[in-house]
Every structure is written in structure tokens, then in C-alpha cells.
Amino acid sequence: MPVKAVVAGIAGKMGRMIGQLIFQHPEIDLVGAFEAPESPYVGKDVGEVLGLPRTGIIVEDSLEKVITKGDVIIDFTFHKASLQHARINAKYGKAMVIGTTGFAKEELQEIHDLATKHFPLVQDYNMSTGVNLLTKLVELTAKVLSEGYDIEIIEAHHRMKKDAPSGTALKLAHAIARVLNRGEEHFRFCREGIIGERPPLEIGIQTIRGGDIVGEHTVLFAGIGERLELTHKASSRETFARGALRAALWVVDKKPGVYCMLDVLGLKDL
Fold first, then answer.
1. Is 162 marked as binding a ligand?
2. Were 152 and a residue from 11, 71, 137, 204 both cysteine, which residue would form a disulfide, CB within 3.0 to 4.6 Å?
3. Does 167 appear as a known binding residue?
4. Which residues belong to any copy of the Dihydrodipicolinate reductase N-terminal domain (predicted)?
């Protein structure tokens, strides 16, 4: 029997892509969708929003109106909205997939605390298979090149992206810090002025914004006489949407708790 999905922010860039792919997926059915109350898409047929034939599914103005219909909620919206959706879901215990970025630490911690007690959650800043494989490769490389190599993360996204650095850049930085026993105090966000010699334990994070770049991330390990660059380039948001559907299928029967795409892909313990 197909998994029943509810999509938050169905009219957004990721919401539309996820919705379109669900209608092509044999194992997932779209049973509900919603937008912010002020959205002009509220009350419209989902098919009209997605550029598809009419579906009979109406875009609602709140999660409460559709949550009982679904097995899993897929949420790529806004940090404050995703937190509110998690609070609501704590009463219902539905599985969740959250790909939203831009959370404050306390917001993300509250979501994780709610999930640990009430529902299974896949929360990740990037749900593409390639980026999560990159994360494991970066961890391995950091272990091998732990001494004598300076580490820099360079990320590039489209001009409309609201948060910086990207959630994926932070995901990579935390992965490096974890294997090297470093902390966030070693993160260096951009540079300006007379900054002096580079501290050896620093993990640099640089941001580029422009045009319609979907997402590019490079991790640079620069030594004396050589450098190694590990890069992932996304050419379409479809890779993130497909990852979200994979996560939705995986998480729906899991126990309450917080999971990531490394769990979904079976890469966490490699």
C-alpha cells in the first residue's frame, strides 16, 4: 500500500518539485497539501499549482486540516514554520521529513527534542545522495589529512537564497569538526582586512551568491606542495526532492527519534 504524504509549502520551489515527483512515484500518494494562510494558492486544486490535471486535492491553509490524512509530512518551508509544524505534529505522531534550512540552534534543538519523544524525523540540510556521500568522503579525508592541511569550505547558491552559509556547508563543517575533535569556535566565516596568519585549526567557510546556481560545495584540503578538492554540484533541485521521497519511505515505520540522510542511505556507520 502506498505511503500517504502531506506536503508543506506545496507552492514553493521544493514543494512543487516534491509534489510533481510524488504523482510519478508508485509507492507514495499525495493526500494533503497546505500553504501559509496568506498564500494566493490556498483553496486551489493541487493540480493547478503543480501544472498537472485536477487532482481533487485542495491546498489548505494549515497543517491541522490535513495532518490526519497522512502517514508522513514532508516539509521544505521556513525555519519558524517548520518548528510550528513539529509542535503540532507532537500531538499526532506522524513521521516527518524536514529539509528546511536557516534554523537557530534553539529552534533545531526544540524540533529534535519533540521528535525524540513523539515522532520519527529525518532532518537534514541536504537530501541528495551525492552530498551525503561527499560528507563521508570528507570525514575520511579529514582523518587522513589531519595535520599540515588547511581546510576550507566554499559554497555557492542562487541570488534568492536567504540564509548564509548554506545548511550543507555547516553540515560539512560539523562533520570535519567531529572527526578532528574541533568545535564551532574553529569555524571562520569569510575574511576581511588584516587578519594575520591563518590559525592551523581553523575551518574556513566561504559563501558565494549569484544567478541561478542550484548548489555547489567544495571542500579544499590545502597542504604544502599539493591540495585536494572534493566537490559536489547540483544541476537541479530534483536531486533534493528525490532524496526527500526516499527519506519519507524510509522513516514512516521508524520509532520516534532524530535521523539523517546518512541513516536513510545506510552510510552512517561506514
1. no
2. 204
3. yes
4. 4-127
